[in-house]
Design goal:
This protein is mainly alpha-helical and 614 residues long. The chain has 25 helices and no strands.
Length: 614
């Protein structure tokens, strides 16, 4: 017990041990401790150091007695702790087991016993010492034992020995994970430990698979782990993970490392900027090395995070793709409905396709005939040229020697004339092509000017008709006097009643209200007319797109983009209409009577809950 106290805490531990001994004596009087634990503690205290590990193996049978999670098992673990048997297990893990019976298999069993005894144990009297000293020492000694087994595995020559050490190493790491699952507060200590980093720094594939799995388990146990560790520790772990990604080709290592990086980025957002700034070519190499290896979902999620740079951007991209998918699906559904209602469109499409296919066949046949004709003309031209040269040679044999020079001079002049003629024709064609574009622009300017002049003339005529008022025709002075007399007589016989100012204001308000209602109705009617025109134009556009759409075998990405919309307001409106349509389909049957041909924008507008739809 003195050895355990010295190793675990020095003088402070001595005080805790004496206090625990006093408490133990008091508890022995008030409650009955487990007899087997007491006898085992006595044997351990009286035995030499090389026999203590063998004696501690008896704890395995003792711990198997009570059922898991029971109160008896918890009390048994407290007895084991208060008799210092857990401290002995922590200490003996650091020994060299080559001279102990069972050798490293004994050490693996003790690691399992230690993790089992510590999980679920929470001593009431010595909680600070247990959580502050015993548990960190247990984790450190478990990692030390794992390092020794890893080194033995790497140095072993025979396959049987290597498999045994690999199995021992796997069991010890399982014990460490089990200990951390019961005491999550230990995860920052293990994550920042130098021994844990040394366990990760290995080039062996089998031990690497085990260690990256342990690291993934640690991050899954405590999602807030990275908020309480140093940034340097995160940087070192990331360096090793990225090195394993580019050094190994095992899909298990690749999948686990990708999941680890996703967990690190999700639980610690500043790490994402660190990855983007420190590892410039990470996205390109990950896409090149690990695409199509069986974990593309996690890989694409990580690549998207590295590309966008924030989780908010990824969510926006996800919503954007969802809106595009909803739009494409909805428009396809609407198009299919219209095609079902328009059976003639299929016939027209088939007729157009057959006509186009026949036109293509005729065009190919015509091109083939033109190519044959061009080949025949070229052969005839070569043949005629060969015959002409043959005749020239024959004529040269007939011409006297004194006429040869004159004949050659005549031939040169004829050749020069031909060259000049060809050159002048070529130059004139070039000038005509340039003048053709200028002539086209000139004609276009004339057409525009004519249209503008007509428009201006119409506007002037309209303004002149509105502003010019000449009064009624044929009104003379005599007629004006007669009309004035009739007006005065009517006013005399029909006097105007006096209207108060309040009555005038009231009538004015009524007139203004009626005018406003009229203007509002007029705006609504205009808006409905514009909407109807827009819907008709959209339907015509969609029908033209369908009639000119290629087959599925000939369709390209550009053709698919014609049926997608990248407008955010349109996407939001499509999402709202789609939700309204889905909600309307879940309604009772009596609400859907007579609504088969109704516009999706107006289906159950009064009954649809917009909060549920959005």
């Amino acid at each position: 017990r003195a050895m355990a106290a010295c190793s675990l805490g020095g003088s402070a531990s001595d005080g805790g041990a004496s206090k625990r001994n006093a408490d133990k004596g008091h508890l022995d009087q008030d409650s009955k401790r487990d007899v087997h634990v007491f006898h085992l503690a006595t044997e351990v205290a009286e035995s030499p150091d090389n026999k203590i590990p063998i004696l501690l193996l008896k704890l395995k049978d003792i711990l198997k007695g009570p059922p898991f999670g029971s109160r008896e098992l918890k009390q048994l673990k407290e007895d084991i702790y208060y008799y210092d048997l857990i401290q002995y297990c922590v200490l003996v893990l650091a020994q060299d087991y080559r001279n102990i019976r069972g050798q490293w298999f004994t050490a693996v069993q003790l690691a399992d016993i230690l993790s089992t005894a510590c999980v679920g144990l929470d001593p009431k009297n010595d909680a600070e010492e247990f959580h502050g000293k015993v548990l960190p020492s247990a984790a450190d000694n478990l990692m030390l034992l794992a390092r020794r087994l890893q080194a033995r595995f790497l140095k072993a020559d025979e396959d049987d020995d290597k498999q045994d050490f690999l199995r021992y190493f796997h069991n010890v790491t399982d014990s460490l994970c089990w200990l951390l699952s019961g005491h999550v507060q230990l995860t920052p200590h293990v994550f920042q430990s130098e021994q844990f980093l040394q366990l990760l720094l290995t080039d062996d594939m089998e031990t690497t698979i085990i260690m990256v799995s342990v690291l993934l388990s640690i991050l899954q146990l405590n999602r807030t782990l990275l908020l309480s560790v140093k940034e340097r520790s995160i940087q070192l772990i990331l360096d090793e993970i990225i090195y394993e990604l580019f050094e190994n080709t095992n899909p298990v290592i690749g999948s686990t490392c990708i999941k680890i990086m996703l967990l690190i980025v999700e639980s610690h957002p500043p790490t994402l900027q660190m990855l983007r700034n420190s590892y410039k070519g990470l996205s390109r190499l990950l896409n090149k090395l690990w695409t199509g290896r069986g974990f593309d979902t996690d890989l694409y999620q990580l690549l998207e995070l590295l590309h966008v740079g924030s989780f908010q951007g990824v969510k926006e991209q996800k919503f954007y793709r969802a809106a595009c998918l909803i739009q494409a699906t909805w428009r396809a559904h609407q198009t299919r409905k219209r095609v079902k209602k328009l059976p003639k469109v299929v016939t027209n499409l088939q007729r157009s396709f057959r006509a186009k296919r026949e036109q293509d066949a005729q065009r190919l046949e015509k091109e083939r005939e033109e190519e044959d004709l061009r080949h025949q003309l070229q052969l005839q031209r070569h043949r005629a040229l060969r015959d002409f040269r043959q005749r020239q040679l024959s004529l040269l044999e007939i011409v006297p020697a004194s006429e040869i020079a004159k004949y050659l001079k005549h031939e040169k002049e004829q050749s020069a004339m031909v060259i000049q003629k060809v050159w002048r024709g070529h130059r004139q064609r070039q000038c005509f092509s340039q003048q053709k574009s200028s002539l086209k622009e000139f004609k276009a300017a004339i057409i525009i000017q004519r249209s503008v002049l007509r428009f201006l003339e119409k506007r002037r005529n309209l303004r002149r008709d509105i502003l010019t008022w000449h009064g009624p025709k044929g009104l003379t002075d005599t007629r004006r006097q007669e009309l004035r007399a009739q007006l005065e007589d009517y006013v005399k016989h029909h006097p105007v009643t006096h209207v108060t100012e309040e009555r005038t204001k009231e009538r004015h308000a009524q007139v203004q209200e009626m005018l406003g209602q009229y203007l509002m109705r007029r705006n609504l009617e205009r808006r409905s007319d514009l909407r109807a025109d827009a819907l008709l134009a959209q339907i015509n556009t969609d029908v033209e797109l369908l009639m000119s759409a290629p087959s599925l075998k000939e369709a390209t990405e550009k053709d698919v983009e014609l049926f997608n919309c990248r407008s955010a307001p349109v996407a939001a409106r499509a999402k709202q209409c789609h939700g309204a349509m889905l909600q309307s389909t879940r309604g009772p049957w009596w609400k859907k009577l007579g609504d088969e041909m109704q516009d999706p924008d107006t289906i159950y507008a009064d009954d649809v809950d917009l909060d549920l739809v959005l």
